[in-house]
Backbone:
């Protein structure tokens, strides 16, 4: 087991190195000057050089790269934001929590909805219920997150005024009692979680539904039923377990998808998370933040893949570290 | 290839600096006169689009940061509505020496920093030293160019000495907020942009900094030991960061946010319609702002300019950089293009009435403005075509596009991506110039690229952007030959006549003579058309009607927040929760 | 031709999807020829009109006919998605084949590359590349393709490896048929089904990504417009100018649903394991 983890970890090293180097190159080779926003038409030209020096942008590219790597390796320092001078690690730390909260709520919501509806549809295969659920899920599977978000926002926040349109908490959050705080969180998270979670739930639904149908028809389940094992037990213990397998292997793909989705959702609902931090950093040419966030994203993706592999090999011992077949 | 050190008084700055003071002649801006007792307490929630980058007056750049700073810090004196006289702030009074070369400020002695340390003359001197330190890179450094020294003979007196007499000596001296020496002296100036102070400011203003939640809120609370007894009235001001315009507007209407600036004109029209004299809770506020938008033409040939830049020869003169641009090098072509654009229709389409026509660089808020001095190019596409054909631009190959010597009249019009208004302007111009046979391709370019790598090397055809105007008429960074090589002089405009008018206007100490030169400058530039000025914007803001005593004028929305107050019977849930 | 029609009719989702996409394509291609309005001609005095008889889907901020713009936007959106998919699929096939046939260290490097590219948070990288440079249709197509070929390559490689082990290929090799011949006559046709399914699904993914990029403000440059950019224009005021974003949004969703249905249908036909499920 440990050797698998180690091997997988070692394998991911080049992915991470190449990934962040590439990000570094894209960022630094992009035309344009991040220092320009600190300049004013009336300032003497010396200031321009001061700014360049401040950000270390006057050095040759390989020197900048080496300095950057050195700082990360020896001091775990990703540099300070060009925009507000704050250490990148601090910026990311405060941005990470909302994104993790959002993503995990969306993932849990999607799993529960996807599995329940999937089983429901599979057991009533080809009935009206099945068709309605499948059609609805097809719609959510095909709807862009931003469209869903705008519609939710327009209907529930703007027209009806039921739910807040931005942020994770109310301004007076700290003034509320425990129950009040909890409801406050739920009110703020509901729309973002739905926006991010529904398309994902639709993805899960498709796998679960076809997996369960397939399993229900397979010989061993028929055999189990013949031996008088209860329908519920069969459904949840055998069929579900089998159909969960492809979902676990999907984890490696789901994490980048969640990250991308979080970008859109956080922009629409003005949430103070990673996605919004990245967008602001890209548009504001905040190199250290872009690089730190990019590095973090690569780690997240690699970690997701590892977790998927490991869980997979625990659940299904036939597979011991092979390249997963992705289709 | 270094330009001489520019002596610039005030000019078009990237962002406006806001002023805040108590004006003696307080105008009642809300329609009803408040005879009731002013009630203290309450919370003001201000919705802002971007997170402030720093709350240190020396490193802050964005408008949001400047607004917050204007509540936390004070200057020696503050600008009045006429934009020429000043009201005492940290200084009680000031006197010029008999030869007018020294200016002495007598400071208040009852002022405390927010950490309860006393404010003294040493803070003023130290602030000046930081302001002129190039490693700090303060964006207002040009104000201090005419100052030779600042000294403090005692704890409550500061003396500014100047190089030469000018009309703006007082403004030069008082510009810039005073920062606490006892805190900043521990920070090396070259590390100012990473200082702890940037996120934990300590000032002398009516509100003190309480806390900052990343990407969410910045909270200020009432400074109970503010030197003006009895002020401020509000308990708390929260700046809520809501980047999305739609969310911001929704929250303004629902009352989650009390004050929003920079509202899109179309949305503002909706607010005005709903308000209708007090029918809704959101009161629209509009005032003449500081922004105008224009088309900048590239008057010179980019390649020739590049070659001249590569030339190491130090004997090179300005004319070596200039080869007229094949399209925009001619004044006739520029005036034809200006006449071919229906600027009134364009202004209305993008501003929904919230803008004034503009014909020359003199902004209407300044005393130097005189509409009669401008040359007006009225919309006349037929005349435009005639002028173009006189210049040789005719559609000889009948493809619908004008051409001359085999070169088709087609060019790129760049603008900043992410700016909805400019994108609309470029799209409309494309259509209008298309009608007289000129093919324009709008191109949205990311700001760092536009201001960093396209405009400074003059590597573009035409650009649609806007400026924020400063408080005195100074166009040297944009049009004077001494700034020919600097990033913001991107049109490549060169006119010896402009140069001499500009210096003449600065060297006179008589405001009336100066005005004559300003008129000449306006006439010259509105004839030469290095820019085609499009419109001067009216600022659109809105504030919840429960706030009383709110003033706004061309200095902005933050003139007197320490005087704002909320009647007890109009407090909302946020007010009450924070009090309870 | 008749065979194709037969195939299409044999599966419900394929049938529905094909009709949907067919309508959208015909609408986008022939619409501009029939419409009295040009997608880019402005009429500032008619700006922001809600749907009426003369402008069935209303007008935008410049008084342009939204219907004409959506028809033009269809060409751009579908054009981008189809071209990017074509490039990605071709790249994927070539790399997959090379990987499978050459094998050895080249195979390992290529598959490592696939792993790395799959690990990229796509939207972030595309945002970075386009946000920092110029945005043009060509660049959007290029970058969409660069980040989409990997799955096809993987599929092709593994399918080829499986097929190659099969008896008839082995015997073909044994009787000395040339490799190129084996690839084109025996292997590719067998892999084609899987490739077609994933490319159809890729089209819908790319429409989604392209519209997300437009949503973030990095889409096609004016006066051209994709559905995503039209939608984003209406987002400034989604209630007051609902017709701009609602109609363009419907087209995006319809196109994505259409391609997904086609993909599902094709898979049902090609992969019998799935057939009975629908």
Residues:
């Amino acid at each position: 087991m440990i050797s698998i983890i180690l091997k997988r970890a070692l394998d991911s090293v080049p992915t991470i190195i190449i990934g962040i180097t590439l990000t570094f190159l894209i960022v630094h080779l992009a035309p344009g000057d991040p220092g320009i926003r600190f300049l004013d038409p009336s300032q003497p030209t010396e200031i321009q050089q001061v700014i360049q020096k401040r950000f270390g942008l006057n050095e040759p590219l390989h020197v900048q790269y080496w300095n950057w790597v050195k700082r990360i390796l020896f001091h775990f320092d990703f540099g300070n934001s060009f925009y507000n001078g704050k250490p990148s690690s601090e910026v990311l730390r405060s941005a990470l929590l909302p994104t993790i909260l959002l993503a995990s709520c969306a993932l849990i919501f999607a799993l529960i909805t996807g599995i329940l509806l999937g089983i429901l549809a599979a057991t009533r295969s080809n009935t009206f219920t099945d068709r309605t659920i499948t059609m609805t899920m097809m719609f959510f599977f095909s709807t862009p997150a931003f469209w869903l978000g705008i519609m939710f926002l327009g209907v529930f926040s703007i027209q009806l005024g039921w739910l807040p349109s931005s942020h994770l908490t109310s301004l007076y959050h700290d003034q509320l009692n425990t129950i009040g705080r909890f409801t406050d969180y739920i009110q703020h998270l509901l729309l973002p979680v739905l926006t991010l979670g529904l398309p994902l739930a639709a993805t899960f639904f498709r796998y679960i539904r076809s997996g369960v149908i397939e399993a229900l028809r397979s010989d061993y389940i028929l055999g189990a039923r013949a031996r008088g094992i209860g329908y519920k037990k069969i459904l949840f213990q055998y069929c579900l377990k089998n159909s969960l397998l492809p979902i676990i292997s999907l984890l490696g793909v789901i994490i980048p998808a969640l990250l991308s989705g979080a970008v859109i959702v956080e922009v629409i609902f003005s949430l103070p998370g990673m996605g919004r931090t990245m967008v602001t950093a890209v548009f504001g040419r905040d190199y250290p933040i872009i690089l730190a966030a990019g590095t973090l994203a690569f780690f997240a993706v690699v970690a997701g893949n590892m977790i998927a592999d490991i869980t997979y090999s625990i659940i299904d011992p036939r597979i011991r570290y092979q390249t997963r077949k992705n289709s | 290839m270094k330009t001489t050190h520019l002596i610039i008084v005030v000019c078009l700055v990237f962002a406006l600096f806001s002023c805040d003071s108590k004006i003696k002649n307080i105008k009642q801006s809300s329609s009803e006169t408040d005879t009731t007792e002013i009630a203290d307490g309450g919370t003001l929630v201000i919705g802002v689009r971007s997170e402030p980058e720093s709350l240190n007056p020396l490193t802050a750049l964005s408008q949001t940061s400047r607004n917050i700073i204007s509540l936390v810090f004070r200057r020696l004196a503050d600008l009045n509505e006429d934009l020429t006289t000043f009201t005492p702030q940290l200084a009680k009074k000031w006197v010029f020496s008999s030869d007018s070369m020294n200016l002495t400020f007598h400071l208040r002695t009852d002022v405390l920093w927010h950490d309860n340390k006393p404010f003294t003359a040493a803070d003023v001197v130290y602030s000046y030293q930081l302001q002129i330190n190039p490693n700090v890179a303060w964006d207002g450094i040009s104000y201090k160019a005419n100052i030779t020294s600042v000294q403090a003979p005692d704890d409550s007196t500061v003396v500014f000495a100047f190089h030469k007499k000018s009309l703006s000596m007082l403004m030069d001296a008082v510009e810039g907020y005073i920062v606490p020496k006892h805190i900043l002296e521990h920070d090396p100036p070259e590390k100012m942009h990473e200082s702890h102070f940037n996120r934990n400011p300590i000032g002398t203003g009516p509100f003190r900094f309480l806390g900052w939640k990343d990407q969410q809120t910045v909270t200020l609370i009432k400074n109970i030991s503010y030197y003006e007894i009895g002020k401020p009235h509000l308990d708390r001001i929260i700046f809520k960061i809501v980047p999305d315009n739609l969310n911001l507007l929704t929250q303004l209407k629902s009352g989650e946010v009390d004050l929003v600036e920079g509202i899109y004109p179309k949305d503002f029209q909706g607010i005005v319609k709903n308000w209708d004299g007090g029918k809704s809770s959101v009161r629209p506020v509009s005032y003449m702002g500081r922004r105008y938008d224009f088309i900048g033409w590239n008057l010179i040939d980019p390649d020739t300019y590049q070659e001249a830049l590569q030339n190491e020869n130090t004997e090179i003169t300005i004319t070596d950089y200039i080869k007229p641009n094949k399209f925009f090098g001619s004044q006739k072509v520029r005036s034809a293009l200006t006449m071919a654009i229906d600027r009134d229709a364009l202004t209305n389409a993008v501003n929904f009435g919230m803008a004034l026509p503009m014909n020359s660089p003199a902004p209407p808020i300044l005393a130097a403005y005189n509409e009669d001095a401008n040359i007006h190019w009225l919309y006349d596409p037929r005349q435009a075509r005639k002028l173009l054909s006189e210049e040789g631009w005719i559609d000889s190959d009948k493809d619908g596009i004008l051409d001359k010597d085999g070169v088709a009249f087609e060019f790129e019009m760049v603008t900043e991506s992410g700016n909805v208004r400019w994108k609309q302007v470029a799209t409309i111009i494309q259509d209008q110039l298309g009608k007289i046979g000129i093919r324009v391709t709008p191109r949205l370019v990311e700001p760092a690229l536009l201001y960093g790598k396209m405009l400074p090397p003059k590597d573009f055809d035409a650009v649609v952007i806007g400026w924020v105007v400063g408080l005195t008429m100074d166009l040297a960074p944009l049009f004077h030959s001494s700034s020919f090589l600097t990033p913001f002089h991107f049109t490549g405009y060169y006119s010896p006549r402009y140069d001499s008018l500009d210096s003449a206007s600065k060297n006179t100490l008589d405001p009336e003579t100066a005005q004559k030169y300003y008129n000449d400058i306006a006439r010259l530039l509105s004839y030469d058309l290095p820019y085609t000025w499009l419109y001067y914007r009216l600022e659109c803001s809105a504030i919840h009607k429960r706030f009383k005593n709110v003033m706004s004028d061309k200095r902005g929305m933050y003139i007197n927040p320490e005087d704002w107050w909320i009647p007890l019977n109009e407090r909302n849930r946020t007010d009450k929760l924070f009090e309870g | 031709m008749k065979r194709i029609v037969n195939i299409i009719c044999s599966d419900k989702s394929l049938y529905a999807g094909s009709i949907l996409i067919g309508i959208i394509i015909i609408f986008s291609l022939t619409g501009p020829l029939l419409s009295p309005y040009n997608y880019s001609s402005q009429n500032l005095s008619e700006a922001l009109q809600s749907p009426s008889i003369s402008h069935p889907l209303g007008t935008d901020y410049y008084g342009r006919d939204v219907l004409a713009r959506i028809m033009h936007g269809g060409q751009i959106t579908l054009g981008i998605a189809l071209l990017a998919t074509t490039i990605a699929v071709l790249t994927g096939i070539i790399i997959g084949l090379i990987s499978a046939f050459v094998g050895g260290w080249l195979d390992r490097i290529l598959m490592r590359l696939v792993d790395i590219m799959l690990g990229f948070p796509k939207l972030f990288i595309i945002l970075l590349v386009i946000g920092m440079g110029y945005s043009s249709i060509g660049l959007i197509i290029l970058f969409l393709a660069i980040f989409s070929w990997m799955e096809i390559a993987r599929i092709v490689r593994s399918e080829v490896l499986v097929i190659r082990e099969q008896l008839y290929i082995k015997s073909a090799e044994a009787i000395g048929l040339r490799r190129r011949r084996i690839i084109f006559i025996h292997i590719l046709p067998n892999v084609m089904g899987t490739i077609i399914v994933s490319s159809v699904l890729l089209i819908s993914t790319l429409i989604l990504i392209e519209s997300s990029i437009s949503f973030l403000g990095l889409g096609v440059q004016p006066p051209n417009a994709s559905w995503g950019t039209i939608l984003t224009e209406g987002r400034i005021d989604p209630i007051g100018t609902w017709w701009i974003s609602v109609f363009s949004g419907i087209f995006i969703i319809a196109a994505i649903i259409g391609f997904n249905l086609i993909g599902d249908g094709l898979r049902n036909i090609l992969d019998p394991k799935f057939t009975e499920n629908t």
About this structure: Confidence is low (pLDDT under 50) at residues 274-278 of chain C. Chain C touches chain A through 46 residues (CB under 8 Å). Residues 66-102 of chain C form the longest helix (37 residues).
